[in-house]
Amino acid sequence: MWGIIISIVMAVIIGVIGDALAGHNMPGGIIGAMVAGFAGAWLGALLLGNWGPVIGNFAVIPAIIGTAVFVFLLGLVSRLFRQAA
Question: Is the full-model pTM beyond 0.70?
Fold first, then answer.
């Protein structure tokens, strides 16, 4: 039970940090930050591997970098959709 709670809290923290690094383009508030944190952790582990400190099954540094990349790309896609509409 505590593992799930720690993973969710870490996803939110990583999502907020990644959003701040990418320029605050993440919609959805805390839920959006949590989703970005999980997606960024996956992307960071895929691109950079699992190195650095691990908290709540997240390799923190690759997760933050992956989240920043994810939020940046999401911001670009949302701007493209706004311009097309």
Answer: yes
Beta-bridge partner residues of 59: 54
Q: For residue 85, what pLDDT is reported?
A: 65
Q: Which residue has the tokens 């390799």?
A: 59
8, 53, 79, 80 from 83: Cα distances, Å = 34, 40, 6, 5
How many domains are there within the chain? 1
Task: Give me the domain span that covers residue 69.
Answer: 1-84
CA distance 4 to 16: 18
State the Cα–Cα distance between residues 65 and 18, nearest whole angstrom: 7
Residue whose structure tokens are 């809290």: 9
